[in-house]
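Table S2 (continued). Query chain:
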Amino acid sequence: MISGWKDDLTPLMQRISQIASGTESLLVIAASSRLALALPANRKAALIVANLYQPHRWKGRLFLALVKWLVATGFAKFRPNYHGLTSVIPKVGWLVDASSQGCVGFLGCNPNHGPRCVLAGIDPVNGDKFIAKLGLDKSAAAVRREAGVLEKLSGRFPGVVRPMGLDTSENNPLSMDSASSFDWALLRLPHLGTTSPRSMADPKIRILLEQWLGKEDSALVQIPWADELLECVAADEVPKDWHRMMKSREIRTALLHGDFAVWNLRKTQDGLMAIDWEWGVEASVAGIDLAHGLRQECFMVGGMNPKRAVEWMLQQAGSSLWSAYLDTCGWSGAHEDWLRLGLLHSHFNALNPSGELLGVLGIHLKS
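Corresponding output:
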């Protein structure tokens, strides 16, 4: 089991060879234990792979600049450090041509959620760019779930990508030999380019979130998603009577992305499109995506200390850009409660530790 991209990746690379990359050799460069780029021999395809990475911190931007320089110069012909399995033909048919001509690579994502990566490259037959999300082991279930969410939501809500197909181990068994058989899922998606909003202050983000609003208000206790989240904290961890007040609060329902952040948005001719719908929920709680997106911007990227981050998020909530939106959601005069619930989602659902932030707002998690 991979625990980080700086580990010995040989077993993982062998499995990726069976599914997608075949005999192709790849240069795998780890940006950290949480992220890596696997560059194929074809330079155009390698640049597409590199552009999957959308860093917002200066260290990440420097790393990406160095990778692009490597691609542009073809330094030492990439000196591949991982080689595909001899004579293996990728199980996913539409990737066979790309793999045979060194036109497919990947961005390796956070291994804490299980081995996963985003494949990208060029179809050598027609020159089209392609992209697909691959999940192995426990990540395979997450990819299947995302495929189901997209099938249900695309065409009904703006900003939701339409899936192009799902390949899985259930329909494409690798081998009857248990030693070489493993669970996997590959979700093909449209290539939307690499241009994202610079910050949550982009007015187009507000427009998108407004388009996801439902037409009715509902008590939080009647929304299963919210009720389950509130049950994640005990009465002695929150302000007095907070559970009772929250459960009776009337809030507009909305489509919830679940991991809303500027790097999960793409600018297209049809407006903003959101990617990474693993946590998507219909008829959930309005305003939560805004809270999570602001949290990612100021705390994860901006590096603000918890007290300053909470102050900044509440300032944004009261700004001319967001105050009317939150009023429509039902959070008028209750911005601290809005942020508490949003940060609980970030902590328990989106798996972004937020205990210190919640502590500033009077919620003291014991573990």
